[in-house]
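User: Sequence for Cd(2+)-exporting ATPase below. Tokens please.
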Amino acid sequence: MKAQIVYDKPCRIRFRCGSDAFTKELERSIHKLVMSNPWAVACEAHYENGGILIRYKEGHRAEAVELVRKLRGSDLAPVSDNQYDTEEIDRTFKSDLAKLVMQRYIRKAILPAPIGAALIVYSGLKYIAKGVSALFDGKLTVEVLDGASISACLIQKNYNTAGTVMFLLSVSGLLEDYTRARTRAALTDSLAIKADQVWLAGKDADTLIPMSQLQVDDCIRVRTGSVIPVDGQITEGEAYINEASMTGEPLAVMKSAGASVFAGTVVEEGSVVIKVRKLSSDTKISKIIELIDNSENLKAGVQSKAERLADSIVPYSFLAFGLTLLFTRNVTKAVSVLMVDYSCAIKLSTPIAVISAIKEAADDDVTVKGGKYLEEYALADSIVFDKTGTLTNAEPVLEKVIALGDYSEAETLKIAACLEEHFPHSVARAIVKGAADRDIDHAEEHAEVQYIVAHGISTTLHGKRAIIGSRHFVCEDEGIEITDEQQAEIDEKSGACSVVYLAVGDKLTGALCISDPPRPEAEEAVKQLKEAGITNIVMLTGDSAKAAEITAQKLGISDFRAQVLPEDKHRYVQQLKEHGHRVIMVGDGINDAPALAAANVSVAMSDASDIAKETADITVRGADLTQLASIRQLSEKLMHRINSNYRFILLFNSVLLLSGAFGLLQPSASALLHNASTMAICAKSMTPLEDKKRKKKNK
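Assistant: Structure tokens for Cd(2+)-exporting ATPase:
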């Protein structure tokens, strides 16, 4: 690329390539290419003049020059880069703010007074029109108050005050837009559907291929517990599909051949082959971000309350204006009162604080789907944990295989791995890995499996019915007899391990003992949650009472429930809520989805099943349970900030209002102090709630 060096200082060089060198779409491609080099510190590309600014580490000027000179526009492909989007938003905000300030003061400096006044009147008409429109809609909102205060200034020919009010309102609006835009960019990457591989359906066998190789009209197989990664149409099979991310409806719907399915929805039960209609990996992003921005249901209760409070205060501002005018007969004093209201700061600072907290959580690898979930997390007094895969190690280990009946240990493990290999639960992964570690080949020799959520798996193997799952499923649901001698042998050999039972041809064939040690940080996480004020910590598990008791003792949990079914977990959470508790539910499996949906706020860890992540209100993208306590601290600090903002707004604006009524402040001073305080409280609401340096030190 032909480039002229127009600025060249140590560690900073600017190139000018010409206005036709590259398009706006390729700005981020250049940015990404430059930043992929270890010597690059920062890069800006501007298509208008073909400008490329590179900041580099000392001693690497030659590399920067060589890279730009070898650059070819035809070699660059458009890319989506979240970091670049954030930097672009920052630049746009700084540019818009600078334009606003320069426009304000240059006009005052160079324009004759009559022209300046005319421009202020013209600008004021827009605010007045908004206020009149709100009145015609039967609403007495902040827009009416803004329009009235500007009108009062213009009627008094106090153009300087009117200009100041409009300038400060513009800056406040710019700040709010900037915060929202930056938060959207920060969340976008974390909410993407990250399906790296898919099963390409074939006539004889399915093939695992990278997502990047998938084409429109290909057919893929999606099984129980997996997110559908594309838009398409079912060609084979039937399944219950949870479409909550699309429709908001929590109950799964049965879909079969011919039905349309969408990216981001989840197969709760069944297996389907889908013909790809659209490679739409952004569906989930757009839906969740739309919810965060717009859904009243996802606003924090305190945020909705603030908005209602802000609008309800407006009539009292007009009443104070009228009373001041009545008793003082002084228009200037009355206008000074009108310049002050509680509404702007309350209405702006609360959503900015909430959305900034969501962004801060995203920076710490925690995805929060709405402000109301942070509020619920702060108010919760109970937390309910699923044991397996949540409190315990994310990778359980197969400790023993107990052979019973006509099959050897190797044959028992081979059958179990064959049945479990398609399912995402951590216990299934342990069995499959155990077979692989023992060099046992478990190629499919059975018919299509049926997964009974949270109970087990059934299929046909060499003409015989084969089932694997919990004791409840195998013995009580399927009627397989387990003799006292067999159970005694299993109890003796399994110790504190969880036990998975296998039956073939209506006879118990064996048992698999799964060791699931607690996560290294689990005990510390429980301790921190107690210190954070969560008084009721409960562990629910489908394991035996013995295994549950040992785990609970290790972690310092006094309340636990063993051999719990999914409906029991859901029922227990409901009972806690009925007794007045606010409940956090933390789970990872398909079987936890009902309880996650029932809790006041639900959390899924990074290695949770797709359906658990889809159902959860908060997703922790790391594997550290102590982040649960960090979320608590963040949410409590958010509520403290909002409440302290309220107190400051009420106190400061009350002082301004009284000062205006007694003639201590002119309208221009009232407007300046009121709007400056609004901007200050909004700016404060954008600052981090947690000390990043101290947090890193603690880690």
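Residues 29 and 76 are 6 Å apart (CA to CA).
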